[in-house]
Design a protein that fits this description.
This protein has 457 residues and is of the alpha/beta class. The protein contains 16 helices and 14 strands. It binds cobalamin (B12) and iron/sulfur cluster (SF4). Cobalamin binds next to helix 1, strand 3, strand 4, helix 3 and helix 6.
Length: 457
């Protein structure tokens, strides 16, 4: 039995077309969902993982599979449907799962033979069994997996040539920010994989550099932090020789022992969602966790950096409180915090989030010709109607923010301080130049986007 597991290409990964930017190579990450599915698949299936982000193959030249499984973020949905059409025309059954299939079930059910909602661990073997007997159902629900059932991902099956390996050590997030799908999809309960499994799986990863995909590696409560420390101790003991980056909440900075252990275990960078310079903004986004009284963000960032860990900060433009000038304000705040890299995104109503419900009820979803418009749901295009910012002005704000933060003098000053503090100056330089280089390409992408929106008015 032959199984193809496919990660559809997204024509607009990040903002520019992948092929136009050589730096985008560094943005290509492994499709961990498919590697986990492969880990759940019995040995009678011969599995091929196809990641179209490495280049879409000529499926006609490949042997006919018995089953096709497709994963997709919302922004990949259109390409997912094209792939599905191709295989269904050949009479090959197609199953789709992942975040988009879960959040847009009705639409996806029209385009594939079978949809798996939720996490796959508890249901995928059943799906395969039904496919083998030609009795695939239209819908399966995996719900939330038992965390101990998460298998080792099949790191051996993904292609070589990625910049980073990938691993997941926890699932779920209790914070439920209004713009994010994680709590709706993975649940509010923070679930942690057994430490022994994580360490053994790390050892199976070929790449030296690894992305820990957890939404929050350290968690928010005392017992979560204690587990994170145990994990880091075990990783250091195992002498993995890996360097990794992860996402965490700002409380990462509050515990010196945690930081020291993380660094010892190989942590080289952390991605933190600051989201907005304003407390009212945090309230609007439902991210009250960042509102801790008396928190000095600059001091928090410095504490992390003292352990030679780079800090990438993420902000969002387009909140109801955002007015003209927000772009410059974010750049200013990011510089004041001393961030090594800044990632700014447009507030985007993703299906299944509270933000989606609110914007839909207020008729503020501007790009709503689905499925075509899903390709712009990359958080790098302003797809909604924003309270105080028109289409032109919100794009201007983004450009002025990026121009400010990624001006050459600012890049050089950041890299100099990284060099001085022995904090990955080369990675910092490459990261900063990569963003800067993309700024040129962004102009063309924004111009195309504006013509697309105006043609539809
Ligand atoms: C790692 C990650 C990335 C990596 C991508 C790595 C990759 N190629 O997969 C990077 C950094 C590149 C990335 C980029 C983006 N991401 Co991202 N990312 C994540 C993150 C943090 C973890 C995903 C992951 O690997 N999970 C581990 C695996 C094991 O879990 P899983 O993917 O959910 O898979 C399970 C189930 O979903 C199911 N399943 C999945 N696929 C399939 C297929 C079949 C056939 C079946 C049966 C089951 C099944 O089974 C798996 C095992 O249980 C998630 C948040 C999250 N918790 O999911 C956001 C998330 C997926 N990203 C999101 C977004 C919006 C993006 C971007 C579009 C925007 C951006 N600028 O960040 C870009 C664009 C990417 C693109 N290709 O278009 C959103 C997606 C929301 C949506 N509706 O689409 C999420 C949910 C975060 C959020 N804020 O809401 N991302
Ligand atoms: S943005 Fe981060 S903290 Fe907020 S719900 Fe999503 S994963 Fe949790």
């Amino acid at each position: 039995m032959r199984l193809y597991l496919i990660n559809p290409s997204n024509p607009l990964v990040s903002i520019v077309k992948v092929k136009k930017s050589r730096w985008n190579r560094y943005r290509v990450w492994k499709p961990l969902s498919l590697m986990v599915l492969a880990g759940l698949t019995p040995s009678e299936w011969e599995i091929s993982i196809v990641d179209e982000n490495l280049g879409a193959p000529d499926y006609r030249a490949m042997p006919r599979p018995d089953l096709v499984g497709i994963t997709a973020f919302t922004s990949q949905a259109n390409r997912a449907y094209e792939i599905s059409d191709h295989f269904r025309q050949l009479g090959v059954p197609v199953v789709m799962g992942g975040i988009h299939a879960t959040m847009c079930l009705d639409q996806v059910m029209e385009r594939v033979d079978s949809v798996v909602t939720g996490e796959a661990e508890g249901i995928w073997p059943q799906v395969l069994e039904d496919a083998r007997h030609g009795s695939l159902k239209g819908r399966y629900d995996g719900g939330l997996a038992e965390i101990n059932d998460v298998p080792f991902a099949r790191h051996d099956l993904a292609a070589t040539g990625y910049a980073c390996g990938a691993i997941q050590t926890t699932r779920g997030c209790p914070l439920n920010c209004s713009f994010c799908s994680v709590t709706a999809f993975n649940g509010a309960r923070y679930r942690q994989r057994p430490i022994g499994d994580v360490v053994r799986e790390f050892q199976l990863i070929r790449e030296k550099h690894v992305l820990v995909v957890d939404d929050n590696l350290i968690g928010t409560r005392r017992e979560h932090i204690a587990r994170a420390k145990d994990l880091f101790r075990a990783m250091a003991r195992a002498n993995l020789g890996k360097e990794w980056v992860a996402q965490a909440s700002i409380n990462f900075a509050d515990d010196e022992e945690l930081l020291a252990l993380a660094a010892k275990a190989g942590c080289r960078g952390v991605f933190i969602g600051f989201e907005t310079p304003w407390p009212e903004g945090l309230r609007e986004l439902g991210k009250k966790f960042n509102l801790l009284k008396g928190r000095d963000f600059r001091a928090s960032v410095r504490r992390i950096q003292r352990h030679h860990i780079l800090v990438v900060g993420s902000f969002i433009i387009g909140l109801d409180i955002d007015e003209p000038g927000i772009g410059k304000r974010i750049a200013e705040v990011a510089c004041r915090y001393g961030l090594d890299n800044l990632n700014v995104l447009f507030l985007t109503p993703l299906p299944g989030t509270r933000l989606w419900d609110r914007m839909k009820s207020e008729d503020r979803i501007a790009l709503d010709t689905f499925p075509e418009d899903w390709k712009y749901y990359t958080l790098t295009f302003p797809v909604a109607r924003y309270k105080h910012l028109s289409l032109d002005s919100i794009i201007e704000e983004m450009i002025s923010c990026d121009r400010d933060f990624y001006s050459m003098p600012r890049i050089l000053s950041r890299v100099w301080s990284n060099l001085w503090q022995r904090r990955e100056p080369l990675i910092s330089l490459v990261g900063n130049l990569s963003y800067r280089r993309n700024l040129q390409l962004n102009f063309a992408a924004y111009a195309d986007f504006k013509s697309y929106v105006r043609a539809g008015i």
